[in-house]
Design brief:
The chain has about 90 residues and is of the alpha+beta class. The protein contains one helix and five strands. The strands form two sheets. Strands 1-4-5 form a three-stranded antiparallel sheet. Strands 2-3 form a two-stranded antiparallel sheet.
Length: about 90
């Protein structure tokens, strides 16, 4: 039985290999890159481009997974700022 629970740690937007995330409309049925849940055609999702290749490779995320990514990124920034202040 397939589980929609994400595996592995939540990615962060901090790093040199990711581009700026953008909201997009799904042109065909896709799966969330993290939880593998189905994203229906015509719905809104979030794309995070993977930089460094010759071609643009964007990974799609559902709203729930993208909000978890934002929470992880905020936590990483909070740690970074507390380290800088001390």
């Amino acid at each position: 039985m397939k589980s929609n629970k994400p595996k592995g740690k939540t990615p962060s937007l901090i790093g040199g290999t990711l581009g700026a995330p953008r909201k997009c409309s799904v042109l065909r049925v896709s799966a969330c890159n993290r939880c593998k849940d189905t994203i229906s055609k015509g719905t809104e999702c979030y794309e995070i481009p993977q930089l460094g290749g010759a071609f643009s490779n964007c990974k799609k995320y559902c709203d729930k997974c993208f909000s978890e990514i934002l929470v992880k990124t905020k936590a990483d920034l909070d740690i970074l700022f507390t380290t800088i202040e001390n």
